[in-house]
Design brief:
Layout lengths: L1 H12 L9 H5 L3 H15 L12 H14 L8 H10 L2 H13 L1 H14 L6 H4 L2 H28 L5 H30 L4 H52 L5 H42 L5 H28 L8 H44 L9 H59 L4 H132 L3 H5 L2 H78 L1
Amino acid sequence: MSAQLKYVVDQLNKEPFRRNYNLISFDSLEQLQLLQVLNDVLAEINPQHKLDIREETPDTTAMRMLTELRVLKYKPTVPPGEFRSGLVAGDKPVVYSILEWLFQKMPELKKRAYLARFLIKIEVPGDILQDEQVMDTYTQYEGLIESFTELHKTTESLKTSGFSTTEIRKDISQMEDEKDQVTKRIERLKKKVESVPNYEHMMSIARNFRKEQERETALGQQKQEQKNQLHHAEQRLQRMKHQLKDLKQSTVGVSAEDLVKKLEEENKVNAYMCEEKLPKDLETLRKACQDLERVVNEPAMGQGDLEEIQNQIKSMNSEVNGLIEKRMMHSNPTDDKLSLFRQQASIIARKKAGAADALREAKEELLQARQELADKREAAKNLEGEEVLKGDEFKRYVNKLRGKSTDYKKKRQELAELRAELGVLSRTEEILKQRDEQIQQRLAKLEAKKGVSGYHDTQEELEKVSTIKSELDEVKGRTLEDMSELVRKLNTSIAAKKADLAPIIKELRPLRQQAQELQIEYDEKKTAYDTKAAGLESNRSKLEQEVRAYREECSQEESRYHYLHCMLKMIEMQNQRVASEMKAYTSADQAEKKKAFRDQYTRKLQEQENLGKSLRDKQKAVKESHGPSMKQMKMWSDFQTLMECKKRCFLQQGRDVDADRMVRDEAANEERLVL
């Protein structure tokens, strides 16, 4: 517990909280303040929780925190019932464990809370989803969720793809090199084209042509968008027509009384579903949930417990069967005249329940069928942008496919013949190449024999050069013709575009004037809005200042109240202590008198005086023996120094004797060697 508390306090003292708590101040926080700290930590994870919990009821605060913890997938270490009650009451162990878990997984929880805002679907009842507009909107909503999921996955994969700065710099340098090459190539092309007459005029025409092409593309996109909108509007119109047709067919030959009866029947069915069927189902589900919660809250059961429960079930079943037999023996069927009606009522109730279940299943199947129909229509729209063919159009499409199939078979046969001919020609080419090589070898031998080696190659090169020159001349001529043809086509297309754009420009002029009027009106409304907003903002700031001042005053009064409350408790404790002391002092009982503070302090004073007297005696004895003791210590230290000096001298004398012996031994050895 202390390690957990220390970890939580350290995290709260860091960024972005900076609470400057210590273990004592944090542990002494009240329940409301502790819940506010937990709420601030949740607000750091999800900014939607950034508020003062004093502005809402405790039940609302607990429900909001439980919902957020469920989204964050927090698993409590205590049973669910104790966890909920502990969170509502601001129990310290519960709140400390939550704070520790939040701090340990802060980055992951921030990401999960961010995704939960977009990925948790809104629950819409099935009866509301039966509306087509609501269903279309909900389908678009689900599609947006799927697209958000894919985009988030792509973003995460790009973040974790591991692109290094060196690779990016290398790519940038390569792109700059390519850019330089492209600019050089453009300059070379400009120099080549500058020699062409009417260069500027032709460039301006090409530039205008390119602009017109871009404008044509934009207009084409607008046209396609308008076609799509028109197509959607036509489809919606067709749906409305079908609905109108179905309604008309359903009312053909039906009088007002029949319609009223039909509505009454539907009303009865809906009333039965809402008043009888659905409440029973809800009660059944609620009982099942309560049973499950009771089972979850129960401790783990062993095999012996299960056998005991099974024995209890068997005994209860036997008792129920015995009671039923007794009832059947004592009851007379002839006396019970309502049994037949009860049986009929039970049969009718079962039939009604079965019909309600069948109606619910039919509605679910209808909703599923409508969803499948909408999916099929959407898939048909996305199928190469074409609609599904019906009737005669489908027959014509089939006939067209048959004709294309026949053409395909003919073309495939021709392709097979051409491939066979290609094989023959390739073989002929190989044979001719081999013969050409043989002829070239013979020709080279003849040139070498006549002394004109390389004559044939030189002649072929000259022929190639002349051929290339003629081809270049022909290309130049074609280029000039193409440029003139291009200029002519550009002029023609520009004139056609001007003719096509003339009615659009005429339509655009009043629209521009209308846009200018709307802009003027918008500016006026915007000015009025800004003025009003500024006034409201100033009023809001004043109100916020007043609220802030009132809150500060309230907090000061609360702190003063708590201070006075603590002082009052301290005074009460002191009064209690004084009263108990007076009672013990005035009591006739010796045991209670001994418990009095006066007697206790008197006894302790006597003990301390005796202790001081003994210590003074010891001090006197120490002072008297101090001089001789110090003299004895000095004599002992001198004796120890003298003995150490004798020890060193003895050791030095031993080393000198050993050295003399070694010298004599060496001299004797030398004399022996000389002899």
